[in-house]
Amino acid sequence: MEVEGYSFCIETSLLAQIGSATIDITYMGFSIEPEIPLNSAGSSGCSTCGSGGSCSI
């Protein structure tokens, strides 16, 4: 799908699991927040502060 000039590709089974996602543009790249978080036991992540814009898919 294309949103605001950016093209995104996601596996349909993954999209069914997360519902939708919000993608923020940050100074380090993109930050993706799913509507329904996946079970991520044992994994690590990072957070960012601020954003240059966002869109929902």
Can you give a write-up of this model?
It is globular and about 25 Å long. The chain has 57 residues and is mainly beta. Mean pLDDT is 77; it is low at 42-51. β3 and β4 (29-34) form a beta hairpin. The chain has one helix at residues 12-18; strands spanning 2-3, 6-7, 21-26, 29-34, 53-56. It has one domain. The chain has a three-stranded antiparallel beta sheet, with no helix packed on it. A two-stranded antiparallel sheet has the order 1-2.
Produce a short descriptive summary.
The protein is mainly beta. The chain has one helix and five strands; from the N terminus they run ββαβββ.
For this entry, give a set of tags:
35% strand, two-stranded antiparallel ribbon, 57 residues, 1 helix, 5 strands, mainly beta
Topology:
Elements: E1 2-3, E2 6-7, H1 12-18, E3 21-26, E4 29-34, E5 53-56
Antiparallel strand pairs: 1-2, 3-4, 3-5
Mean pLDDT: 77
Over all CA atoms, what is the radius of gyration?
Answer: 12 Å
Question: How many separate structural domains?
Answer: 1
The secondary-structure class comes to mainly beta
Shape: globular
Number of helices: 1
Strand arrangement, largest sheet?
A: 4-3-5
Spans where pLDDT lies below 50 across 5 or more residues: 42-51
Fraction of residues in helices? Answer: 10-25%
Order of helices and strands: EEHEEE
Biggest beta sheet summary: 3 strands, antiparallel
Quantity of strands, as a count? 5
Measured distance between first and last alpha carbons = 8 Å
The percentage of residues in β strands lies in: 35-45%
